[in-house]
Specification:
The protein is mainly beta and 1016 residues long. It is built from 13 helices and 49 strands. Helix content is 10%, strand content 47%. The longest helix has 25 residues.
Length: 1016
């Protein structure tokens, strides 16, 4: 299906890219007119050549006369000319080389040699987990963002800071409420029966990403998904690296089947003790409201629907007044914009962080504490608080042989929200519904005819979350080429939440009392894990050959406990948090599990003359999630790189600064299936039979199932031009995941619906990734950089024996992505009857789900990426970043397709069928009293009409920063900044938000933040 809007956008993006490249070419080739100079006495023409240490000319070097705006650029031959006095000082600057100052003196002909900067490409290190590697010499695919990118975004969660910035990494925010969840996939969904969450490593410690929230408590407010990464303060993060291909991930073995996210927190640095205070305050609003019916339109549509249903008799019967108070009992002229009333408020966020750091040559330290308080756009006093403390201590002996580091993260989250998201009510509540409060300030029930949405504020949801992450590392250099080290880690994630449902939150017409209705559900969950990783590393140089070796082992253990209780019937609501006062207590969930993991890993790296690099990694994993004989799996990878720009026939060409061809292939596994799946398992249901607790079988013994396997292949081409002022990385990858762990159907006579086991099915993910970085201008005080990334992914089910006869026949299709949905094919509204029509695929004359849901829609993105620019002039800087995505999603028709029902709907439903011969988008109006229309209405919500293009371009974030000059405040470092998040979205999508299209969940907010960073 063609999308004219996004085709135009693609053309515009392509044009922008061409313009950027053109600007770079003009800049680096020196095709600029020299600044007009003011000629004075004693001035003379100076000319010269700028070369590197190999005596090769450097084009595009900026040559500035110090303390003036006069200067020039070197041309393609490294030559320049300008007018200067003998007393002038020339300042030469160019990316990858040290800035140099030259006194003109009496010379009129100069030859200047620039020295390579230690911050050049070869010195930029990337964290690969167990080791570090230079950007130049890495053989694996590792994407990175650092604190400079993170600190410019007013976000609560590290995942939010990553959105749009990394190719191959697709992140979606699941709710606009604080403390909510995120979904992430790195290069697509690999396994049929498991999620896409990667392995998270925080300062060397594995960190569980699974929420411990319970759907019994929080399904209505954040769908039970409270992301544990909310505990990590983004401002405490130094860098985030994402490992994607086999070469980068294989050293983590089975845990890295879905990729690895490495989070490195900030550390102390040597120097004088320095305090840094960061204060900011922000506000958030819903960025887009739906265009809904007003009272007049709504009531007319309601009456038309009831008339079409032929039930005017009920409308005139007082016994049925409770069914349509909107038509008979409520004010027919009243109008309330419920979107503005219920979700139109302002969410305020205040954040304060104070850190102190410093140290000498041997010992460095950092202590940081922060507190955040955030409200919501809902009425009432809902809010989210987070307090976190981060510390780091590094020490090394005088001879630098012994090193030790220790870091801690402690976070406390206090989340108090309504039990249910008010967004659904804001979109559907009748426009003439009564006021929320009566004249006495009490909830208005309008004579028991109105289900007041603010009654939800009487229902309490609270979550208290405590997180501890501890990491310690010890290293000793036995010989110059031989060292030993150990990584020790511990983390604890405690989640305690409850939900209160008092009888006062329900309409008085039901006659509920505390004894008959009031209840509380509690969730007390705890996850604890520790890890020990001793390692040996060796390195040696033999002529042009450098060899590095790493050998280590991992011991990890994780325990999890969860108890969910519901207590009902209390003498009064003030005793609801005292479970002993309840009439009945029911156990909803009582889970305890232990997970043990052991592994041996090794790495061999061969580097010949900084040109040819070979990287070998291997890992043998053992997991308690498999039975005897299947607990261990072997995984490994090989990666190679050829830095062809170091070859003599290319090295001195001038145009190409860096060129690398790399490839990798390897196998990772997955044990992400839950604990004890290979054993006979039983659960206590919480119910009883004749006073006895029921024990229900939940799993059947199968000792033979084993590791899922993911084969990863990648080819990449990396280029740098004009001394790496312009870099372009292009990647092709193919991941094939097999030996899928899925439920194999069993006969009902066994008492089980399925048996968890390995199935000979294969899922393939392929794709192209492009990363473009450009330094457009680097002219002394003025700088302009551009970054761009693009991902074109493709997912498909490559193999699944006997799919048509399996329980997955209605869910998957060979050759199609796992993200597809089978839908009815909507043919529009029958012009003679006003009823929705659908294609009869099996031509049996009947429309039903068994044979006619054969319209296929793919909900995975066709492509996605981001475009960012950073512009600075002296002490003022501006950064802005656009995120874009090409995709399809469910629109408002997935919920609202029947005009005339008792709920508000978009104004588009006014375009409905009324008379034979009408050509309309929507069916005839119905009050919901004609049961023969139910199938048609239901099928339309899961048809092709309910899906539309949801492509968008979003201004993800923007930051304006001003650094107060030292001449004004010599003893302070003061930065003032203004930040924006989710400022505007260009889209043709019919719905609240194209990326999160739900009509019952609050979309991500538009946010503005103002702040100051003070260093002293």
């Amino acid at each position: 299906m063609k999308n004219t809007f996004f085709n135009k956008v693609r053309i515009q993006l392509f044009c922008i890219l061409l313009i950027v490249i053109s600007l770079n070419s003009n800049l680096v080739l020196g095709n600029f007119k020299h600044t007009k100079l003011n000629f004075r006495a004693l001035q003379q023409q100076i000319s010269g050549n700028v070369v590197d240490s190999n005596n090769m000319p450097i084009a595009g070097v900026n040559i500035q006369i110090k303390n003036t705006s006069n200067g020039a650029y070197t041309n393609q031959d490294g030559h320049f000319t300008l007018i200067a006095k003998s007393t002038d000082v020339l300042v030469l600057s160019y990316l990858g080389f040290e800035t140099q100052e030259i006194l003109v003196g009496a010379k009129i002909q100069l030859t200047i040699v620039l020295q390579e900067d230690i911050t050049a490409l070869d010195a930029v290190t990337i964290n690969a987990g167990y080791y570090s590697v230079s950007e130049k010499q890495r053989t694996g695919n590792i994407a990175k963002i650092d604190t400079k990118v993170i600190e410019k975004q007013p976000v609560n969660n590290p995942l939010s800071a990553m959105q749009g910035h990394m190719s191959g990494v697709n992140i979606v925010q699941n709710t606009g409420l604080p403390g909510g969840g995120y979904s992430i996939d790195i290069r697509g969904k690999n396994f049929i029966n498991s999620g896409t969450d990667p392995l998270y490593i925080i300062d060397g410690v594995p960190y569980g990403s699974e929420s411990l929230g319970s759907v019994y408590i929080s399904s209505g407010i954040n769908r039970g998904n409270t992301n544990p990464l909310n505990a990590i303060n983004p401002n405490d993060i130094e860098s985030i690296e994402v490992l994607k291909d086999a070469d980068a991930t294989a050293i983590y073995g089975s845990r890295a089947a879905n990729g690895v996210v490495l989070i490195t927190t900030k550390k102390g640095k040597k120097g004088q003790t320095k305090f840094n205070l960061n204060l900011n305050s922000g506000l958030g609003r819903v960025s887009h409201f739906l265009d809904l019916l007003n009272t007049e339109e709504y009531l007319a549509l309601r009456r038309e629907g009831i008339t079409n249903d032929g039930r005017l008799d009920l409308l005139n019967n007082p016994a049925y007044d409770f069914i349509w108070p909107d038509l008979k009992l409520w004010d027919q002229n009243r109008y309330t914009d419920w979107q503005k009333k219920l979700i139109g408020g302002t969410a305020y966020r205040n954040n304060m962080q104070l850190s102190v750091s410093g140290g000498g040559e041997q010992t460095q330290f950092l202590i940081s504490g922060s507190h955040q308080n955030e409200s919501t756009v809902f009425p009432g006093d809902s809010r989210y608080k987070k307090t976190s403390i981060h510390t780091n201590l590094n020490h090394q002996s005088k001879n630098q042989k012994f090193k030790v580091n220790f870091s801690t993260i402690y976070s406390k989250e206090d989340n108090r929200l309504p039990r249910l998201d008010l967004t659904g009510a804001a979109y559907t509540l009748e426009p003439n519904a009564p006021k929320l409060y009566d004249d006495n300030g009490e909830l208005n029930w309008e004579n028991n005819t109105f289900d007041n949405p603010l009654a939800l504020l009487e229902e309490t949801y609270q979550a208290d979350i405590n997180t501890i992450v501890l990491n310690g590392g010890v290293a000793y250099q036995i010989l110059p080429s031989l060292g030993v080290k150990a990584n020790l880690g511990y983390n604890n994630y405690n989640f305690a939440s409850y939900r209160l449902l008092p009888n006062t939150s329900r309409n008085p017409r039901f006659g509920f009392t505390p004894e008959s209705y009031s209840n509380i559900t509690t969730n007390d969950s705890d996850r604890e894990s520790w890890i020990v990783e001793p390692q040996i590393d060796w390195k040696e140089k033999f002529g042009k050959l450098n060899i590095k070796a790493l050998l280590g082992t991992t011991f990890q253990r994780q325990t999890m406990d969860q108890l969910v209780l519901t207590a009902r019937g209390f003498p009064n609501n003030s005793l609801m948090q005292n479970l002993s006062a309840a009439n009945t207590i029911q156990i909803d969930e009582d889970n305890a599990s232990t997970y043990s993991y052991q592994a041996f890993f090794c790495r061999l790296n061969f580097n010949w003359d900084d040109k040819y690099i070979l990287n070998l990694t291997g890992r043998r994993d053992g997991s308690s999630r498999f039975g005897p004989g299947s607990q261990f799996g072997n995984f490994g990878a090989v990666g190679g790189a050829w830095i062809f720009s170091e070859e003599e026939f290319i090295k001195n060409t001038g145009l190409l600064t860096f060129g690398k061809l790399r490839a990798s292939y390897g196998i990772t596994g997955s044990d992400n299936i839950g604990d004890y799946k290979f054993l006979d398992s039983y659960s206590i249901t919480g119910n009883d039979y004749n006073g006895n607790l029921l024990l229900e079988p939940t799993g059947i013994y199968n000792p033979e199932f084993a590791w899922e396997v993911n084969n990863k292949l990648e080819l990449a081409f990396e280029l740098g031009f004009f001394n790496n002022r312009l870099t372009l990385n292009s990647v092709w990858y193919r991941n094939r995941s097999s030996n899928q762990l899925i439920g194999i159907p069993l006969a009902s006579t066994t008492g089980f619906s399925e048996l968890t086991g390995n199935f000979d099915a294969t899922v393939e993910n392929t794709g192209l990734e492009f990363d473009f970085n450009s330094i457009n201008i680097s002219n002394g005080d003025f700088k302009w950089n551009t970054v761009f990334n693009l991902t074109i992914p493709k997912n498909r089910l490559l193999k699944f024996p006997d799919l048509e006869s399996s329980t997955f026949a209605n869910q998957y299709i060979l050759g199609e992505p796992l993200s597809i949905k089978r839908l009815f094919h909507a043919l529009g509204v029958d012009s003679s009857t006003g009823v929705y029509q659908f294609e009869d695929y099996n031509e049996d004359g009947v429309i039903n789900s068994s044979g006619d849901r054969n319209w296929i829609e793919d909900f995975s993105p066709e492509f996605y990426g981001g475009l960012g620019n950073s512009i600075s002039y002296k002490n003022l800087s501006l950064d802005f970043f656009f995120q874009f995505k090409k995709q399809r999603a469910f629109n408002t028709k997935s919920v609202q397709v029947a005009p005339g029902y008792r709920r508000n709907v978009p104004v588009s439903l006014l375009n409905h069928w009324q008379n034979p011969g009408d050509t309309s988008e929507y069916m005839l109006a119905t009050g919901g009293l004609n049961s023969s229309l139910y199938p048609s209405i239901s099928y339309q919500t899961i048809s092709s009409a309910a899906v539309s293009d949801a492509s968008f371009i979003r201004l993800r974030n923007i930051t304006l920063n001003f650094k107060i000059p030292k001449s004004v405040l010599p003893n302070l470092d003061l930065n003032l900044y203004l930040q924006g998040q989710n400022l505007f979205t260009i889209t043709g999508f019919d719905g609240p938000d194209p990326e999160m299209s739900s009509l019952i969940i609050l979309p991500p907010l538009r946010q503005f933040t103002i702040g100051a960073q003070i260093g002293f």
